[in-house]
Amino acid sequence: MMNNVLKAIFFLISIFTAHSLLAQPGNKTQWSKDGLAYYEIEQGKIVEIKLLDPKQSTTYLGETSLTPKDSASPLKINHFTFSADRDKVLLFTNAKKVWRYRTRGDYWIYDFATKKLSRIGSTLQTSSLMFAKLSPDGKKVAYVSNHNLYLEDLSTHVITPLTTDGTDRIINGTFDWAYEEEFGCRDGFRWSADSKHIAYWKIDARNIRNYLMLNTTDSTYSFTIPVEYPKAGQDPSTCHIHVLNINSKEDKRMLIPGDPIQHYIPRMEWTLDGKALIVQQLNRKQNESKIILCQIDDSSSKIIYEEQDEAWIDIKSRWNDDDPSGWEWIDQGRSFLWVSEKDGWRHIYKIGLNGKETLLSPGDYDIIEIDLIDESAEKVYFSASPENSTQKYLYQINLKGGTAMRISPTNESGTHSYKISPNGKIAEHTFSNAISYHSGAIVSLPDHKEKLPLTTQKTLPDGAPKPEFFKVTTVDGVEMDGWMTKPTHFDPSKRYPIVFYVYGEPAGQTVTDTYGIGFNSLYDGSMADDGYIYVSVENRGAPAPKGSAWRKAIYRNIGTINIRDQAMAAKEILKWTFVDSSRVAVWGWSGGGSSTLNLLFQYPEIYKTGIAIAAVGNQLMYDNIYQERYMGVPQESHADFVKGSPITHARNLQGNLLYIHGTADDNVHYQNAEMLINELVKYNKQFQLMSYPNRSHSISEGEGTSQHLSTLFTNYLRQYCPPGGI
């Protein structure tokens, strides 16, 4: 039996794999000025980690300094940021959730010169501050509270409201639910380099209807929890960009062309000279992108770069770790780097402010993400995997373009990740594959020589199941990657039940060569020990580095092409002599729950048992940004929405279905469950239902919830898809 420590590790890894959007977004690493150390929180202190000599790492800010005058205990820090001169550090504490993420809390400032710890926004509501940022000159701090922007002078702590019209519908300096969820936009304001202006987003959600979640357990009488949530087919919130003059308090709206309702602005930053803003504007369909310069003196706008796509255009959060902030400036701000799929591959381009473009990474391969721009050495470090879409390696290319050079060792096949110093000379290296995990090694770049050995190393224990990777070609000629974990005491002369893990939509991959793959965190015990074959295959539409044609084949085809790919792959797999075609199960969460339902309903001759968690049963009930990006606007593609929705095919259910949903799911609303229930009842289709009261999309809240869900999942699978070889 797998030990508890290993199971806990796999649980954390596989939870991210199963529904990656649940992960709290990481805060940017705080580096030392020389790039040879970084700072992190350890045991309640801020510690300086010296990469080349960890033994010399020191406490940078200790518990005494972090203890307020009126408190006997130090602050519990969630994250922190330094001023540019390192004279001050801004501390975020007492964090509370705003939907998925803990982005609301209290802020404190510690001044190293005066050795004084002061609370920011002390007259405002506790745990109401969001995204506090020091001005570049270190004299002021700006933040959001209750949808308004505030400015605080650090010498006097006088607080000045910069906006006063903020409500739950007029949102200044942050975003509504849909922008946060689907564009990764949370922090909605930017300081100018001279500390004289603040640019910010203003979202007007007054025309967005509330979805009312119903809480029936936390008081004698039920009450509703409103979420401003634009469903597919509904107009987005109005979005404008404003610039505030800190001294005069003059507030200018930038004159961005087009309809402010029928567009999105997922990115906005200052140009390096501080005279203009650079903005990315998407049309509502998200298949036209414009890069716009906005002059702050007269608010005028000029389009400098445009791009169209027959399907959709991804934004920065899709190729830079869910963080849309920052702009990749080079040439002292005269040019920037941009990522586009315009030639069929995800490539890096150099774009000048005059609109001139240069392709830097030519070739039939995708970049996965940009890791570092080292302009002093004229290099860009990026991740890619030209030969194997389940893996990831570090590459380097010249800023003038040319042939990419692999930096990651050729003898280490798998997934490589790097925390690269801003100086581009050293990096903390993590390497993982299906059977091992190694982290903490310090390597020099670009030669990748190890300067310090690994600090963490894990390998699957003897006797533990080892995932096997394979490829399967369907009757449609589609070649798909897959992994399989066989039973612990596998006997090829026997036939075993098979369980498919599926996601299937453009938000995540399931087939990656990483540690923890092939392990089911929801199963109470070991599926391999019990005698299951566990499998996942990657359909078209998954965000694998296999070219845009692969990824965008799913456009207006969610619920159809991905489902057919999965089913046709399963047909080929069921031809394997050791697979029992009478015991076939499938499960998934969120988009994977939707895929599970569609597979059960559309291909009942293949799948006998399904467990669907937090599934979108009706695509018209999901949010407009996500669903319209991949399916088009319903006014033009309504039939595609209907065709791909599980409720359309619910009448075909023949096998065993367990449906699980949290009633307080603000992402995939519980109405999806009730609509599906109505359709199944209509056709007298018997199934089992588990509703978790007041649990969100993660179904993690409440004492005993995770264990209950695991037990429920395991018992149902064992009952309706019995384990063991025959």
Summarize model confidence as the mean pLDDT.
Answer: 94
Largest sheet data: 8 strands, mixed
Under CATH at level 1, the class of one domain stands as Alpha Beta
CATH superfamily of one domain: Alpha/Beta hydrolase fold, catalytic domain
Low-confidence stretches: 1-23
- From the spread of the alpha carbons, the general shape counts as globular
At CATH level 2, the architecture of one domain is: 3-Layer(aba) Sandwich
The number of E-state strands comes to: 44
Description:
Helices cover 15% and strands 36% of the residues. The chain has 11 helices and 44 strands. The strands form 10 sheets. It has an 8-stranded mixed sheet, sandwiched between helices. Strands 13, 14, 15, 18 and 19 form a 5-stranded antiparallel sheet that branches. Strands 32, 33, 34, 35 and 36 form a 5-stranded antiparallel sheet that branches. Helix 5 packs across helix 6 (591-602). 46% of the residues are buried. Residues 1-23 have low confidence and may be disordered.
TL;DR of this structure?
By secondary structure, the protein is of the alpha+beta class.
Topology:
Layout: H1 4-18, E1 30-31, E2 37-42, E3 45-50, E4 58-61, E5 77-82, E6 88-98, E7 101-111, E8 116-120, E9 129-134, E10 140-145, E11 148-153, E12 159-161, E13 170-172, H2 177-183, E14 189-191, E15 197-204, E16 210-215, E17 223-228, E18 238-245, E19 251-253, E20 263-270, E21 276-283, E22 288-295, E23 301-308, E24 329-330, E25 335-340, E26 347-352, E27 357-359, E28 367-374, E29 379-384, E30 393-398, E31 405-406, E32 415-420, E33 426-433, E34 436-444, E35 450-452, E36 456-459, E37 468-473, E38 479-485, E39 496-501, H3 527-530, E40 533-537, H4 548-552, H5 561-573, E41 579-589, H6 591-602, E42 609-613, H7 624-631, H8 634-644, H9 646-649, E43 656-662, H10 671-682, E44 688-692, H11 705-720
